[in-house]
Amino acid sequence: MHKESIFLVGPMGAGKSTVGKLLAEKLHYQFVDSDHEIEAKTGATIPMIFDIEGEQGFRNREALMIDELSLKSEVVLATGGGVVETESNRQHLRTRGFVVYLKSPVEALIQRTRHDRNRPLLQTGNPAQVLKDLMERREPWYLEMADLVIETQQVPVHRVVKQIIDRLESEKIV
Ligand SMILES: Nc1ncnc2c1ncn2[C@@H]1O[C@H](COP(=O)(O)OP(=O)(O)OP(=O)(O)O)[C@@H](O)[C@H]1O
Ligand SMILES: O=C(O)C1=C[C@@H](O)[C@@H](O)[C@H](O)C1
Ligand SMILES: [Mg+2]
């Protein structure tokens, strides 16, 4: 099967946006970040959307955006960490492109998201516990839909990108 677009999935802090940008550059693909596209389209930040419309409001917007972006060819798509919460997203990503799960232990995710104020689900008294709970529910979905799983703990971004490209080349996807 020829799969043209690359979809990055994984939790908040996995590196989807960071890895995605560099990967797209190397492949000469367009880079799209679902979270950024939702913000650009609505003219509101993600925390604002959560405030005004609640998480479900955000998920509805995200599902429309994923449907649209997953149909593009030759893109690297960085998805939001919660993309797997919606069944149609899982279905579209699995069937329309090559899915890479960027895997990291919760401890690394906690460190990487420590100073961030842009992730509304982590603006609580105990973000570490939230990340643990989310991973417990979501990891089976990330794994189930992944064509490739890449461990990113203590692996610099350029090495993660190299591993993805090696695999895409060996499977003749790019
Ligand atoms: N392999 C890596 N090693 C060390 N730090 C990393 C790595 N990948 C990403 N980071 C850092 O972790 C932080 C989070 O990365 P990034 O924003 O790319 O995550 P994300 O998966 O897009 O998260 P979200 O789902 O919230 O959008 C950034 O500060 C980034 O520089
Ligand atoms: O893990 C999540 O549910 C989220 C991750 C981010 O990428 C954003 O999509 C938003 O903050 C929700
Ligand atoms: Mg991101």
- Broad shape: globular
Please give the order of strands in the largest beta sheet. Answer: 2-3-1-4-5
Task: Let me know the number of strands.
Answer: 5
Q: How many structural domains?
A: 1
The CATH architecture can be given as 3-Layer(aba) Sandwich
Quaternary state reads single chain
Report the sheet with the most strands, covering strand number, pairing sense and barrel closure. 5 strands, parallel
- Helix-strand sequence: EHEHHEHEHHEH
Cα end-to-end separation: 12 Å
What is the average per-residue confidence, as pLDDT, rounded to a whole number? 95
The helical percent reads: 55-70%
Strand content: 5-15%
CATH class division: Alpha Beta
Structural class: alpha/beta
What is the fold named in CATH at topology level?
A: Rossmann fold
Number of helices: 7
CATH superfamily: P-loop containing nucleotide triphosphate hydrolases
Family: Belongs to the shikimate kinase family.
Enzyme class: transferase
InterPro entries: P-loop_NTPase, Shikimate/glucono_kinase, Shikimate_kinase/TSH1, Shikimate_kinase_CS
Function: Catalyzes the specific phosphorylation of the 3-hydroxyl group of shikimic acid using ATP as a cosubstrate.
